[in-house]
Amino acid sequence: MRFLTILAYVVLSLFVGLILINLSFDLIPLTDFTLVLNYYILFNPWYNLAIGLIGILLILLVVRHLHVLLANSYQEKSISLESAQGKVSITISAIEDMLKKMLEAEEKISHVRPKITTKKNDVTVNLRAYLTSSFNLIESTQGIQDKIKTKLEMLLGEKKNIIVKVDISKVLSKHLPLNEEGEPEVPFRNY
User: Fold this and answer.
1) Where are the domains of the chain?
2) Is 46 helix (H, G, I), strand (E, B) or coil?
3) Contact 79/89 with Cβ under 8 angstroms?
4) 3-state secondary structure (DSSP) of residue 123
5) Are residues 87 and 80 in contact, defined by beta-carbon separation less than 8 angstroms?
6) Which CATH class is domain 92-171?
7) Widest CA span of the chain, in angstroms?
8) Alpha-carbon dihedral of residues 152, 158, 163, 169, nearest 10 degrees?
9) Per-10-residue mean pLDDT for the chain, 191 residues long?
10) Distance CA 128, CA 109 (A)
11) Cα–Cα distance between 73 and 113 in angstroms, integer?
12) Would you say the pTM of this structure is higher than 0.70?
């Protein structure tokens, strides 16, 4: 469906662009253009029906595209939980900060940037970070995933489906400190 929406926008943009170029440079006189429209399109009922259906299809594609854009822009800003005493709401940014503090205490990971998205009962954690050692990458990342998942299950309960995605951008050496850009700093560079 996305392909049809993009195709409709491209065809419509090309058509409108060609008409505007024609009007500005008068490549095809407007009287000839209206004669062709009257003769071929307006007096043939099948062409009228086809043009009407294409117009309806374009309008439906635009409405659907706007609906998808608005639905994606409206994300849940908090996670609501029911307890015996009432409703509890935890903001996504609070959970992200908690994960960041928890993971920055780890020695094998640095420059932690968690991003949480929610949809109904699904909680997805996209974690971007640097590893500080290259020893057993798979075991290190799986340990991080397990730690995040157990922490969120403890916090949110077992009812939520928690998906943890880890993106390791760099593997750093412990000996070189990092500068503001995240690159290893060269010793005695500023002297």
Assistant:
1) 2-73, 92-171
2) helix
3) yes
4) strand
5) yes
6) alpha beta
7) 84
8) 20
9) 75 85 83 79 81 84 79 68 82 90 85 87 88 76 90 83 89 62 59 54
10) 10
11) 21
12) no
